[in-house]
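Review form for a predicted model. The reviewer records the input and the model, then writes brief findings.
Reviewer: anonymous (R2)
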Amino acid sequence: MNWLITGAGGMLGRDLRAVLAGAGEAVTAPTRAELDITDPAALRAAVAGHDVVLNAAAWTDVDAAETAEAAATAVNGDAVAALAQACAAGGAVLLHPSTDYVFPGDGATPYAEDAPTDPINAYGRGKLAGERAVLSILPETGYVVRTAWLYGEHGKNFVQTMLALAARRETLDVVDDQRGQPTWSYALARQLVALAGSGAPAGVYHGTAAGETTWYGLARAVFAAAGLDPERVRPTTSDRFPRPARRPAYSVLGHDRWAGSGVPVQPDWRDQLAEALGRPGFRALFPSGDVQ
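Model under review:
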């Protein structure tokens, strides 16, 4: 198959490139500077001749979206609709990553793929608009894969931030009242590529790690893996760190739909973290240089 990755210079885009390169696939991988996804004509030209499109392009600044909702939705909603239309015209399959932020985060059990959506911030509203466009325009060839708490070797993310702060601060206060599924971007990339070739029914899937924890639990696990004392991480509450955008308190997603896809659910978040922290990009940040 001929693959197109939009937003190929970002964290997920770079991991998608690596997965496909390892499989010997033919890939076109424009970065944001090379392909403006808000330009419908550019999207039509880019999609032409490709069998599968992996949309790794997105507005990811959750807090900035609160005061620039129209701009954020232009990328996460309107541009996704134009990309879906280009795929429909060109006969390409589209895999579109979305987010746990389409849910209100007030649940107590994992959100099913068909659970009612009700975003509590501007970012979530824009991403939901993109989801709806894909499902409406490409009912047979459009895949929405919601993910959450994504981290990787490339780009700013929580795991890298914890390792950087560990070198500068004796203790860290990390929120313990938000629950989710820390998900390695490379594991998500592997799952997206597998889904594209699986022949599974189109629709919504949840691409997150198995298991769950809090940001505090994740920070302690990162410290322990880096050979640092996890007791340096102290629990606190979200109200100690006010942000422009409200965050869901509960972001655990269910994985039932994978059972009929032939693609396995992602490994537990602890196993993903252990594998990820063995990679050079993370290992270089370890004070000792060794994974524990």
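Findings: The chain has a mean pLDDT of 96.
Further findings: The two ends are 40 Å apart (CA to CA).
Recommendation: see findings above.
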